[in-house]
Amino acid sequence: MGLPMAFFTFLLAQGTSGGIFAPLPEGSTPSVGYFEQVWLYLHANVVNFVVAMVLFLLVLGLRKITDDSYIRHKLRSPYIALGAYFFTLFMSAAFSPTSYGLTRVFYLTALTALTLAAVLVAGVVAIDIFVVRVRRMQFPVIIRDLLVIIVFFVSLFVVLGHQGLDLTAILASAGFVGIVLGLAMQDTLGNIMGGLALQMEKPFEVGNWVEFEGVQGEVIEINWRSVKVLTLDREVVVIPNTVITKSSFRNLSRPTGVLRQSLVVGLPYSLPPNKAKKAFMDTLLRINGILRTPPPEIYLVEYSAYSIAYRVTYFIDDLPLRERISDEVHSKLWYGLKRSNIKIPFPIQDLAVTFPKEHEATEADSHRRDQDEKSKLLNRIPFFAPLPADDIERLATGARDEKYAQGEEVVRQGDAGYSFYVVRDGIAEVLSRDVTSGQTAEVALLKRGDFFGEMSLMTGERRSATVQARVDTEFLVIDKDNFKEVFERHPDLVGRISDIVVQRKIQVEEQHATKRAQDAQSTHAQSASLMARIKSFFGI
Q1: What is the mean pLDDT of the chain?
Q2: Residues 307 and 442 in one domain
């Protein structure tokens, strides 16, 4: 750090040393005029001037042909160094006939600026363009800058050595000034050394996600002084290198970038643990963003005062979406537990004065209204219409309600199932994947009163299509055992259901056939267009 200041201080002491234009003997007069001496001075530096012009044109050309903001930023420093060179060169020429000391200082400063410009341009071309952009190799910024500094000082000492400077005096002055500045800039030097340690050890790299003293985000820059982290709040947090090297932190992107998430949910004591774990697992496996390998895990962790606590764990590999996935997990678990008729207990103290008869009457009225609504809904289904009212009521009594969140799958194509679904509220979409083409087509939209699942329920065949809720949707679900009693009393119902099932299968097949025909027509049209262009090009 003290070397540059020692160098420029030392230049002032070089006014009487040898060089291009030595001072005239005392009492003598110049053999040529002022402007002739200026011209001779500039002519003696024509090589350096040509080198400076070549560097200037090279920098200008690189800025014109590149759109990389980093490269353009790095090319600003050579511009400044070349500007300093041209200024100090002409200043040294202006003073050369009258003041050898000032001429010497300006001339050596010009050589320093030219050397700096050459090294900076070489660093941009060799490291930033060739190594990083062309060869696609990583090159830490700190190591790059350190290499440029070392090359600059080595080159500068070689250049100044040819000008007759005593380099040992410069180094001695640099050592003294360096000690003074080192004591005054301990924090800055500590950050620099910390940055070098981070680059050598590489506990994290740009692009890694880290967590440090409550700050969590993506590393976007590692420089001489600090590490910059971009948080999920889109804020840039600057952490000094010395603080990082003296503290512990977590690298969330290593070794694999897979991160485990967990939450604790309390469920009733009356619920068997195996049933609770199955309800959790069924919901987690339906959520996008949760990895299948490693699979989610559910542990019973505590028998608390009012519930059994389960730790639900799952794995993700997309850290920026962690909060969004967590929100979906919490939301879908509520719907999943609701469908399984599982209540989440919580401590509550309820003081209420009720009249038993009035309370029982209110509950009875509510239950009766619900049963009437279910019966009306089932009466709208074609093959239930001929059934007597008592059979419809039996089916309504045995049916259960299930609620699904928006975007959640109700059934999946290829899965086994033995339940029949009727849309009670909301909208669901039927998606069928064609085995031949592998494409998925929307077969139908289901609204209140529409139904599905009759094929799997009647024959045990796997689901022929996927059904998912377009909005929060509630279904009325009837199981196989409910149908069995109806079939025993009404055998003719089997034939009617068979006809409906066949019509549904034909509808799905027609949808896929239409899609394949459209794809074939599109392919034929594109082929004909390409053939016409080829014939036109060759003049056939």
Answers
A1: 77
A2: no
d(CA 304, CA 268): 10
pLDDT tens digits for range 349-367: 555 565 565 555 666 777 7
Distances (CA, A) of 432 to 416, 437, 452, 505: 15, 12, 13, 11
Cα-Cα-Cα-Cα dihedral of 407, 412, 418, 422, to 10°? 30
Q: What's CA 289's distance to the chain center, in Å?
A: 13
Residue 315: band (very low, low, confident or very high) from pLDDT cuts 50, 70, 90: very high
| Residue 108 zone, left/alpha/beta (φ > 0; ψ -120 to 50; rest) | alpha
- Residue 499: φ, ψ to 5°: -60, -45
Residue 82, pLDDT above cutoff 80:
yes
Rounded (5°) CA angle 449-453-454: 90
Structural domain includes residue 184: no
CB-neighbour burial class of residue 455 (10 A; exposed 0-12, middle 13-18, buried 19+): buried
How many CB atoms are closer than 10 A to CB 271? 18
Asked if residue 150 is part of any domain, the answer here is yes
291-303: pLDDT as tens digits: 999 999 999 999 9
Residue type, 369: R
Domain ranges, residue 298: 259-339
> Is the separation of the CB atoms in 399 and 334 below 8 Å?
no
User: Residues 154, 32: one domain?
Assistant: yes
**pLDDT tens-digit series, residues 140-183:** 776 777 788 888 888 888 877 777 666 665 555 555 555 554 44
Query: Whose structure tokens read 């500039």?
Result: 42
Q: Which two tokens stand for residue 241?
A: 């290198």
Domain count, the chain: 4
- CATH number where 506 lies: 2.60.120.10
- Confidence (pTM): 0.55
